[in-house]
Write a structure and sequence with these properties.
- The protein is an all-alpha fold.
- It has two domains: about 190 residues, no CATH class; about 240 residues, MetI-like fold (Orthogonal Bundle), CATH 1.10.3720.
- The protein is built from 21 helices and two strands.
- Strands 1-2 form a two-stranded antiparallel sheet.
- The radius of gyration is 32 Å and the shape is flat.
C-alpha cells in the first residue's frame, strides 16, 4: 500500500515545481508593467500641461503654426510612449470618476503596488520550488494561495473600474492561472485531519466563484458606485463636486418631493401585490380542476405576461380614455365619463389593475404548487368532515405558503420599481396634459427624470440608494413576519 501512496505523493509534489516557475515568470511580467507604468507617469508629469503648452506656442509663433506644432507634439508622444497602451481613456463615467473623485496620484501608487505584488509572487514562487516537495507544507502553501487569490480579485475590480475598463483586465485574468494551480496542488498535499471536508468546501468555493464575481460586478460594485455618486453634486455636463450627505439629507427634508413618491409607490405596490396574489390564486384554483379546454385557458391567462409592456399599456390607455370602453359602459348606465389616467384618485387603481392582469406567470407557478399539495392530507381532512373551505384554508394555503411567499416577495420588489406606466402615460402620453399628476410620480420615475431628464446624477444616485434601502426594509419586514405563517413539509431551513 505504501508504494502507490509514495508514487501519488511524488506526482502531487511534482505539480508545485512548475507552479513555482510560473509564479516567477508572472512576477517578472507584473514587475515590468509596474516599472513601465511608473516611468510613464513620471514622464507625463514632467511635461507642461496642454493648456500651458498651447499658450506658449500661440504667443511665440501664432495661431496656425502653434496648432500644427501642438498636434505634432502630442501625436508623437502618444506613438512613442507605452502610456496609451496601459492608460487609455476607458469608460466615460469611470474616467470622470478617476479624474474628479479619486485621490490625485493614485495611479502612481497603483503601479507601485504592482511592483510590490510582483515581489510577493516572487516569494511564493521561491517557496513552491523550495518546499513544494514536502507534504507537511501543504497548508502553508494553501494559505499563500488564498491570499494571492484575494489580491488578484481586488486587482481585477480596481483595474476594470478605475484603470482602463476591460482593456487592461487581461493581466489579472491570466494571473488567476498560477493561483488556481497553487490552490489545487496545495490542497492535495494538505494531510491534516478533516481533509475530505476541506476538499468539498474548497470545491464548492471554486464553483461559487462565477456567482460571486457576477454579484460583485453586477450588484455590489454598482450599488457602491451609486452611493458614491450620491455624495457629489454632479450636473451634466459639469464635473462632479464633493457634497457629502447633502443630497441624501435634502431628499428626506420635510418639503421634498420624495415623500409623495414614497406614498404613491407604496400604495401602488401594496395594491398590486395583494390583488395579484388573490387573482392568481383564484385563477390557479379554477384551472387546476378538470374542466374542458383547460390547456387553452392556461394559455389565455398566461399570455398577458409575455405581451410587451408598452403594447399592453397603449391598449389599456385606449380602454381608459375618455371615449374608451369603460367610459362607454359607464355612460350607458347613466354615469359621467371620467379621465381615469388624469385623476389622482383613479390612476393607482387603474395601473394596479393592469399589473394584476399581466400576472400570468404567478398563475402558472401557483398551478404547479397546487399540483404538489399532498392528496393524503386533503383526503384525510375530507374523511374527518372538513368542508371545502376548511380544506383550502387549513391544508392548501399552508402547503402553498412557500410559493405564496416567493411570489409575494418578487412582486413587491418588482412593483416598487415601477416606471414604465409613468413614462408612457405621464411622459407625453396624455394629450393636452400640462401638469403630470402626482400619482404618476413613482420613485423610479423621479429617479429617471432626475438623472436622465435633468442630468442631476448626484441627486439621482441619492434617490436610487434610498429606493434600495426602502425595498430592503420591506423585504426584512416580509421575512420577519413570514416565520409565523410559512410551512415547510420537510421541516424548512434550519
Amino acid at each position: 500500500m505504501s508504494a502507490p501512496n509514495n508514487l501519488n505523493s511524488k506526482k502531487l509534489t511534482g505539480i508545485l515545481l512548475p507552479v513555482g516557475i510560473l509564479y516567477i515568470l508572472f512576477s517578472a511580467l507584473t514587475a515590468t508593467l509596474g516599472i513601465i507604468g511608473s516611468r510613464a507617469i513620471d514622464a507625463m508629469n514632467s511635461l507642461p500641461s496642454r493648456e500651458d503648452f498651447w499658450a506658449t506656442l500661440y504667443n511665440e509663433i501664432g495661431l496656425e503654426a502653434a496648432t500644427e506644432v501642438f498636434n505634432e507634439r502630442y501625436a508623437a508622444l502618444e506613438h512613442t510612449t507605452v502610456m496609451p497602451d496601459f492608460l487609455p481613456d476607458g469608460f466615460v463615467f469611470l474616467n470622470s470618476v478617476r479624474n474628479n473623485a479619486l485621490p490625485e496620484g493614485v495611479l502612481r501608487y497603483f503601479f507601485i503596488f504592482l511592483i510590490i505584488f510582483a515581489a510577493f509572487r516572487l516569494i511564493i514562487g521561491g517557496i513552491n520550488i523550495i518546499f513544494g516537495k514536502k507534504q507537511e507544507k501543504g497548508a502553508i502553501l494553501g494559505l499563500f494561495g488564498k491570499i494571492d487569490l484575494w489580491i488578484v480579485i481586488l486587482l481585477t475590480v480596481f483595474i476594470v473600474f478605475f484603470i482602463d475598463g476591460f482593456g487592461f483586465v487581461w493581466l489579472p485574468i491570466i494571473s488567476f492561472i498560477p493561483t488556481v494551480l497553487l490552490l489545487h496542488g496545495s490542497a492535495k498535499l494538505d494531510n491534516r485531519p478533516g481533509k475530505a471536508s476541506r476538499e468539498e468546501a474548497r470545491t464548492a468555493k471554486v464553483f461559487l466563484i462565477p456567482a460571486f464575481l457576477g454579484l460583485t460586478f453586477i450588484t455590489y460594485i454598482p450599488l457602491a458606485a451609486v452611493f458614491g455618486i450620491s455624495l457629489f453634486h454632479w450636473n451634466i455636463p459639469f464635473a462632479p463636486e464633493f457634497a457629502g450627505l447633502t443630497n441624501i439629507i435634502n431628499l428626506f427634508s420635510a418639503d421634498s418631493f420624495f415623500w409623495n413618491s414614497v406614498r404613491v409607490t407604496l400604495i401602488y405596490a401594496l395594491l398590486a401585490v395583494v390583488l395579484g396574489m388573490v387573482y392568481s390564486m383564484c385563477i390557479a384554483l379554477l384551472l387546476n380542476r378538470k374542466i374542458p379546454g383547460r390547456t387553452f385557458f392556461r394559455t389565455v391567462f398566461y399570455l398577458p405576461f409575455i405581451i410587451p409592456v408598452v403594447s399592453s399599456l397603449i391598449v389599456f390607455g385606449l380602454i381608459y380614455s375618455h371615449n374608451g370602453v369603460i367610459n362607454n359602459i359607464i355612460n350607458m348606465f347613466g354615469g359621467e365619463r371620467r379621465y381615469f389616467l388624469l385623476d389622482n384618485a383613479t390612476i393607482i387603481p387603474a395601473l394596479a389593475f393592469i399589473a394584476v392582469w399581466a400576472s400570468g406567470n404567478i398563475v402558472v407557478i401557483k398551478m404547479a404548487g397546487l399540483a404538489n399539495v399532498p392528496r393524503t392530507y386533503l383526503e384525510s381532512a375530507e374523511v374527518d368532515g372538513a368542508n371545502a373551505w376548511h380544506r383550502f384554508w387549513k391544508i392548501t394555503i399552508p402547503c402553498m405558503s412557500p410559493i405564496i411567499f416567493y411570489n409575494m416577495l418578487m412582486s413587491l420588489i418588482t412593483h416598487m420599481q415601477v416606471v414604465v406606466p409613468s413614462l408612457i402615460f405621464a411622459g407625453g402620453g396624455q394629450a393636452g396634459a400640462t401638469v403630470i399628476p402626482q400619482s404618476f410620480r413613482f420613485i423610479a420615475y423621479e429617479l429617471y427624470m432626475t438623472g436622465l431628464g435633468y442630468g442631476q446624477l448626484g441627486r439621482a444616485g441619492a434617490i436610487s440608494f434610498a429606493l434600495f434601502i426602502l425595498i430592503g426594509i420591506l423585504t426584512i419586514i416580509l421575512f420577519s413576519t413570514s416565520k409565523s405563517w410559512l410551512f415547510y413539509e420537510g421541516g424548512g431551513p434550519s
